[in-house]
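Deviations from the work plan: none for this task. Representative record:
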Amino acid sequence: MIVRDFHEANKTDRKVANERWESVRLLLADDGMGFSFHITTIEGGSEHTFHYKNHFESVYCISGKGSIEDLATGTVHQIRPGVMYALDKHDKHTLRCEDTMVLACCFNPPVTGTEVHRADGSYAAAD
Amino acid sequence: MIVRDFHEANKTDRKVANERWESVRLLLADDGMGFSFHITTIEGGSEHTFHYKNHFESVYCISGKGSIEDLATGTVHQIRPGVMYALDKHDKHTLRCEDTMVLACCFNPPVTGTEVHRADGSYAAAD
């Protein structure tokens, strides 16, 4: 059994960040669960475009407020606590944050921890 | 892109419950994500023994208070908001809830939605 506390992991290299978001990886590939699990905080007033071509991701909003735009269709969905979105088609999207959002994120395949966002908004494949 | 709201899903057959817990399945096997994602609420004062012999499960505490006992070792871990546990060894465990807990749970392989807890605390394998 693995037990980890966000408030501790937050002070270690499990936290990755850029200037407008941070993500604490509570589970990574080497935990052997077959998915990774992250608590991600997006700063209010920021906007981010991601395109996980090599991963499925689900995101559940714990707190905060914003929206997600599906860039293939232009559809915008409001994000509030209790809303989940899942990128089942590796959907390219723009996340807009009104009030700081705390999100619970699952990735399959699991993130290894060494990925960086590339210019196209994706992570490289695990291989 | 799949978008679902806990507050809506809560009123549908995505919610399964017994008298002391309920679980709203926001993602199931047929969503094709390779994992399922559930928001589970455990009633304060209740105790549950589970043993997912055929699944890996991670659980992140959003709110509430309780503990988990690893029945193989007798070790008890406190559960507070921000604590995650992951049953990477299919660990048989007892969950004790002091104040109503809201938990974000991921299962691999994904739950299909038709499983019931068996007498031994497990779900049957997906096959």
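The interface with chain B takes residues 1-7, 26-27, 31-35, 37, 39, 56, 58, 60, 62, 68, 70, 75, 77, 80, 82-89, 91, 93, 104, 106, 108 of chain A (CB under 8 Å).
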